[in-house]
Amino acid sequence: EARNTCDNAIRYAEYRRVLQQMPLVHYHTLRKLMAHLSEVVKYCEVNKASVENVAKVFGPSLFHTEMKTGFDDTTQQIGAIIDLINGYDVIFEVTSREEICRAMVEQAQLHKATTSNAVRADGLLVPIHVWERENRPFNVKIDLAAEEVCREAVARRGFDAPQDGNYAIFEVIMDGALSRRLTPFEKLSRTVLDHWLTWQCTDG
């Protein structure tokens, strides 16, 4: 129904109203995906990923409509993705803090791309919790890979598990509602700098 009006403000407001009725985890997952896709289409001249092309890929897999014909169904799905990408800031109520964080990330990426001797963030520390969040964390350098962090955790005094066990690092957000296992060679800097800056501080 939101697509039945030509007024962008009214259409985006209706999208916002409907999407905010979704379960919180589903809403934030869609929000993050649309944030990513809106960034992708910014560089369409380079990656050829125009908003129309991206919508054709993601529309049928993300949405289902009650149209009688497959053509109409696909058209509605693609149109919805186009609206969510073009109206991302309005539909998902992007805050000024998020805008600042996004600008910081873009500036950092630009600086890294144009400066051969870019300053590294090796000195930054990130807290790591063993087994569960409630216990006392220990800090590790942000440039370490997941498997290196596991080795440091095992070597710590008081580690009460077999040292030759199979351990992994998990990124946990939304108070435990979402979690992701880091690959052994994935550096913490990728998670902290590329992901966490766009989430509220209490989410990670």
From TrEMBL:
<dbReference type="InterPro" id="IPR000198">
    <property type="entry name" value="RhoGAP_dom"/>
</dbReference>
<protein>
    <recommendedName>
        <fullName>Rho-GAP domain-containing protein</fullName>
    </recommendedName>
</protein>
<dbReference type="GO" id="GO:0007165">
    <property type="term" value="P:signal transduction"/>
</dbReference>
<dbReference type="InterPro" id="IPR052227">
    <property type="entry name" value="Arf-Rho-GAP_ANK-PH_domain"/>
</dbReference>
<dbReference type="InterPro" id="IPR008936">
    <property type="entry name" value="Rho_GTPase_activation_prot"/>
</dbReference>
<dbReference type="GO" id="GO:0005547">
    <property type="term" value="F:phosphatidylinositol-3,4,5-trisphosphate binding"/>
</dbReference>
<dbReference type="GO" id="GO:0005737">
    <property type="term" value="C:cytoplasm"/>
</dbReference>
<dbReference type="Pfam" id="PF00620">
    <property type="entry name" value="RhoGAP"/>
</dbReference>
<feature type="domain" description="Rho-GAP">
    <location>
        <begin position="1"/>
        <end position="92"/>
    </location>
</feature>
